[in-house]
Description:
Chain A is of the alpha+beta class. The first copy, chain A, has helices spanning 2-8, 65-70, 124-137, 153-176, 227-233, 240-257, 288-307, and strands at 41-45, 74-79, 83-88, 91-93, 99-101, 105-110, 114-122, 184-192, 198-202, 208-210, 217-221, 265-271, 279-283.
Amino acid sequence: MLTCLRRELLVSEDSSTGAVTGPQTSSVSLVLAKASGRDQIRIGTAHPARQPPTSSWWHCGRGSIAQKAQRVTYCVGAILEKGMIFASDSRTNAGVDNFAKFCKMTVFERRGNRVVVLLSSGNLAGTQAVISVLTQRCTDGDAATNLLGARTMFDVVTLVSDATRDIEKRDAGYLEENNIRFNASFIVGGQIVGEPIRLFRTYAEGNFIEAGSETPFLQTGETKYGKPILDRVLTQRTPLADATKCVLVSFDSTMRSNLSVGMPIDLICYERDSFEVQWRRRFDEGDTYFTALSDEWGEGVRQVFRHLPELRW
Amino acid sequence: MLTCLRRELLVSEDSSTGAVTGPQTSSVSLVLAKASGRDQIRIGTAHPARQPPTSSWWHCGRGSIAQKAQRVTYCVGAILEKGMIFASDSRTNAGVDNFAKFCKMTVFERRGNRVVVLLSSGNLAGTQAVISVLTQRCTDGDAATNLLGARTMFDVVTLVSDATRDIEKRDAGYLEENNIRFNASFIVGGQIVGEPIRLFRTYAEGNFIEAGSETPFLQTGETKYGKPILDRVLTQRTPLADATKCVLVSFDSTMRSNLSVGMPIDLICYERDSFEVQWRRRFDEGDTYFTALSDEWGEGVRQVFRHLPELRW
Lengths: 313, 313
């Protein structure tokens, strides 16, 4: 366990692995649609990947360049009585002078049967390769060994783990020649007919943990700035609407403190037993709702402070 | 600058440097009192160091042991129009199976002339040695070259820097033989007659930065969990009472997420141009005010969430 958690600290969209300089095609845009509406199959990023490099990565007083370069990405998965929330940022970087946007959310959906959501952290070449392998396997071979056919969510996350190890086997040696460590980890959650909703988090080594009743959320990447608000607000009984707001505020806090976590934010709210993604949203810079949420949260917090009891020295 | 910030990541109350296994006397308890009340001189920790090892350092679901062992200590200094706030935790550790409490706050005070507050981060043997050197120099030698006589706060922080480098020169080689890096850094703030209030943060290398008008607070140690709330609330115009509550909530957030930051919390609120420490408080575990503050903050935050606008998908 110590090994995994040590690795967690290294989560980053790493530079020299072709992340931003490689071809800009989206590797996960395959969509399979069967005739029956009930059995419609979708695989894809929540939104097509976009690629205008962002500017203004440096901001006075927000911490160190070295620090930021080590911790881009922020992903959260939450598991509640009524359903699940998934959210990911879209910032990647190859060094401090090359930032770009890539969607880190991938959905494998068979309406009426399953919804599986993956949120990617790690070097982009690695996570994209894992997603591509998982996607290709959905069209080849035995259904029981792909994400659209696997019997349980445990089997699903095991397949993600296997694919991660396959890519590590292929790439790690070459990366190590340049002192780069292979690093791909995922938040994996969703529901398959016959099972409750389940939420996992894989590590670069391929092992994984599952969220339990006392830990209703899992994070990857730059986790610290956004964790206190999740700790204070999220319980299993939190309504989906409140949990959605809480996750977005957690992103707002993180983005204020670490500029290498950046918009757009991809968000999915999955209602338990619906077996389809009904609510999905992308928040781009300047999004009216997100801005209002951030402003009202800030003002609300300052009001709470004014009403807290004063210290008697 | 990169070097400093890289070093910041390593801040810890380190193990094998005699931190907890060495003699348990407080090295900074010297108090000099001159006859005149106006010129009373005090040097000392905010409270005498205490030493019952704490239990229950492990808690399920709060992160990794490895991670915690790297980041104990949380200190904050804030500089506002009306004065300054200083706060430090008291947790040290020598490995994961040996936690203890040491006061990390030291005050050099000449009533009517100056108040200088130091908050220590780094390995305990190093920070204690620096404080002892600074304390001894107050009784020997040229007044202009000690903290009670120095002309400006810039001169004060330069003396802290010099003492840090002196101790590094003495110890670093011996530590490196065991792969331990010398590490002592300080938040240094206060006011000397003729100057405004000023706030600095030194690095292990001895260089330092000063807080400016756009950065009204400086942190050391486990800074991330407690930063969002400071970012949202603290501006130069924040009243001292609100800033005090904000700093305490920042500590509460940090302690919830990182168990190696621990009570007691030492707190000083310095009113500008008072040239004496009027408000000082120690919060131990179970402190009634701190518990009420934490509870009311949590409830207030949940209420703010309930009133935030709901997302329209």
